[in-house]
Design brief:
Length: 375
Amino acid sequence: MKKVLVIDDSALMRRVMSDIIGNTNEYIVAYTAANGVDALRIIEEKRDIVAIFCDINMPKMNGLELLKIIKERGIETPFIIFSAQDDAKDTFTALELGAMEFIKKPTRIFVDVEFRDKVNKALFIASSINDKDGVIDATYKSHKTRHGAGIIYQSKETGTRIPESKSTSSISTSVIDNSNVKSRKLVALVCSTGGPKALQAVIPKLPKNLAAPMLVVQHMPAGFTDTMAHRLDELSDICVKEAAEGDVLKNGVVYIAKGGTHLAVKEERGKVSIVFDDTPPIGGLKPCGNIMYGSICNLFCYDEIVCVVLTGMGADGTKGITELSGHKKLHVIAQDEKSSTVYGMPKAIYESGLTDVVCDLNKVAEEIVKKVGVL
């Protein structure tokens, strides 16, 4: 049985979580703690924990404080935040610090099938992460070791393999090709598990005069994407906003899909604007990247679409990009396996044969700018 740690100051919640996780017949809640101080001691002593479920509001040390400490110490065990509070700021902070997922506590614990399904899904994602690392102890590797220099990226077009630069804090102007900047391009990105943290490694590196608008679908429920957009805007030179219905796309602006709403685009009189698609969730996803990519098929004013697929479970984006490839010239960038929290979505697009560039997360912004150019 795979061992899980549950941290919550409510004895009832610890019992409920133990029942839900134990019913999987694959996992067992082997360790529990009522606060972050006791949990930290367990985490440092036990090296067989495959997943951590942690409440945010607890005495002595809260969930965010605990998460920050264990990430600073290089502990990479999948960490899932769950809370009864609808605090978008705390939730995004947890995802920003490296939490794998956020789960809202139910109001009626014993009959909430949706909560049980989300816990099971989180365990499935945790298994994907642990399987990628190979052995449980590998999740305790330091961040520096896991994401150090020497990672390579490759291009489908050239087949070249280039060492990653140790410096990724800025994009050299030498990599920017403005020879075809007059051609109209659109950047469309999709990501899921690990996405909020991944977006912080991409969007703040984009210049404010990027010669294209950028659409972003991050799988996230309603109420959280506005906080994420504001945070990314604070960190970036480029303008970042939560997409609003009717927004006319402008170069140098990143539009984040509103949580709980499908983002699509339409073209009228040479201008492209945001529209909300109220289609039910696709495979449980709303927003869904496939809907965004599908709507781009009908645009005439963009000559080329730069598609970016980052970390996430499943295959969202691949169907839409495949459909789009029959209508538009594409340049497809996928995050590599080593830097992905979950190598599901990037793997799916890579295996489709449509990928032009596979690169470390720290190289994604550079690849976008190199293809799009600046004004």
